Amino acid sequence: MPIYDYKCEDCGTTYDVFHKVREIKDDIVCPQCSSTRHVRLISAASVSVRGSSKAESIPPCGDASCCGGVCGLN
In the predicted model, is pLDDT for residue 23 greater than 50? Predict the structure, then answer.
């Protein structure tokens, strides 16, 4: 089961929910204010690459060319 990130529309809290893809939206409750009003956020996928690391050649996210999240994989 995947983990989804949500943001509460009432208090602005961001939280993770571990559930099935077809989970009922009203079952998701903000842990801060108990609201059921939320939006699902887009999360970055985790990528594992075998072999030599090129992490030192990837520019930091402050560089506009990198912030897509796939700097060293293009």
Answer: yes
Sheet holding 14-18, edge to edge: 14-18, 3-8, 38-40
Identify the pLDDT of residue 74: 45
Q: What is the value of pTM for the model shown?
A: 0.53
Q: Is 16 helix (H, G, I), strand (E, B) or coil?
A: strand
Amino acid letter, 55: A
Domain 1-43 sits in CATH 2.20.28: yes
Q: Kindly list the domain boundaries of the chain, sorted by start residue.
A: 1-43
Rounded Cα–Cα distance for residues 32 and 15 (Å): 9
Compute the half-sphere exposure of residue 48: CA atoms within 13 Å on the CB side of its CA: 0
For the chain, state the CA radius of gyration.
17
